[in-house]
Write a structure and sequence with these properties.
The chain is α/β, with parallel strands linked by helices and about 325 residues long. The chain contains 12 helices and 10 strands. The strands form 2 sheets. It has an 8-stranded parallel beta sheet with strand order 7-6-5-4-3-2-1-8.
């Protein structure tokens, strides 16, 4: 049994230089553990973090999580050489800005896959558009590599480029979130993010505020989000999973529509003053399918905890 890797709701950023964080990360229940070399690792600690990275890959997957590594594009050769080994699922490229940068990352990964006995193209990419330049070049950056699976925004770096508003929110942040969702749809990639509200920025948000941010994010099209604290993981998993009531309503809509259109005479149905069109019913079907996929992902992680590993496809 396998489950689609499209279900990646919670991305737990874990500094490789913090051995205690690396040790506890698998027990948090994240869909993805992101071993970080770029954002939370001091410059002086990066050489030793790279040396220890390979031995972290397999243990990080012990409870059913996938493992990505976050790299610094300015140090891409050193970071990728340390990261791309059997067991790696993907790379998060921070501060992605140009197609040339992404081409270079892709080429290095391809070379390492070949030399280290990995399937060609097996390492996926998530690009973090953390600067004004990266967002401006978004389409070209996203389509520069066939490896690109997902996109995210980096709020901390964006505030330096785009300045905060008097409310404390980042200037144009709501526009950039909607634009990222549109960009992902146009390029066939997956948008990652949550709709945090001031003063939360994700770093120290409470579980309750994380849940609310995830639910708001899912409502505009995001499929998952990054976090840095273990107790935020359950909130992200829950917030990006349709509730039981949502699934029940969606399932009922699909059944009513299927029954009403079984004769093939009409495709638009009115139910309790609500007009059901094929597009609305497709959205309901997508909700049911996504909920089923989330349940499958949770079963896989539970099985892995019991020592019954199930591959993710």
């Amino acid at each position: 049994m396998t489950v689609s890797a499209d279900v990646r709701r919670s991305w737990l950023l874990t500094p490789v230089s913090r051995s205690e964080r690396v040790a506890t990360a698998p027990s948090a229940g994240a869909d993805v553990i992101v071993l970080d070399l770029a954002e939370f690792v001091a410059e002086t600690d990066k050489p030793s973090a790279r040396e220890s990275l390979r031995e972290c890959l397999v243990p990080a997957k012990s409870t059913g999580a996938e493992v990505f590594v976050q790299i610094d594009p300015e140090l891409m050769l050193a970071d990728l050489s340390a990261a791309v080994w059997p067991g790696l699922d993907g790379i998060v490229a921070s501060r992605a800005e140009t197609p040339e940068q992404v081409h270079a990352i892709d080429a290095i990964i391809s070379d390492l896959e070949s030399r280290r006995g990995m399937l060609p193209g097996s390492v996926e990419l998530v690009l973090s558009l953390e600067t004004a330049r990266g967002n401006h070049n978004g389409f070209e950056v996203t389509t520069a590599s066939s490896r690109t699976w997902g996109l995210s925004l980096g709020r901390a770096d964006l505030v330096m480029d785009l300045r905060p508003e008097p409310s404390g929110e980042i200037h144009l942040m709501q526009y950039l979130m909607q634009r990222l969702v549109t960009l992902a749809a146009a390029t066939g990639t997956v948008p990652l993010g949550a709709w945090w509200r001031f003063p939360d920025r994700g770093l120290l948000a409470t579980p309750a505020n994380t849940l609310a941010a995830a639910q708001r994010g899912r409502s505009i099209g995001f499929k998952g989000s990054f976090c840095v604290v273990d107790d935020q993981v359950p909130s992200l998993n829950a917030g990006f999973t349709p509730s039981e009531s949502e699934v029940a309503v969606a399932h009922d809509l699909c059944e009513v529509y299927a029954s009403a259109t079984a004769s093939g005479v009409c495709t638009v149905v009115s139910v309790d003053e609500r007009v059901l069109t094929p597009d609305i019913v497709q959205q309901a079907a997508n909700t049911v399918a996504w909920a089923d996929a989330c349940s499958a992902r949770d079963r896989i992680k539970a099985a892995a905890v019991e020592g019954i590993p199930i591959p993710v496809s």
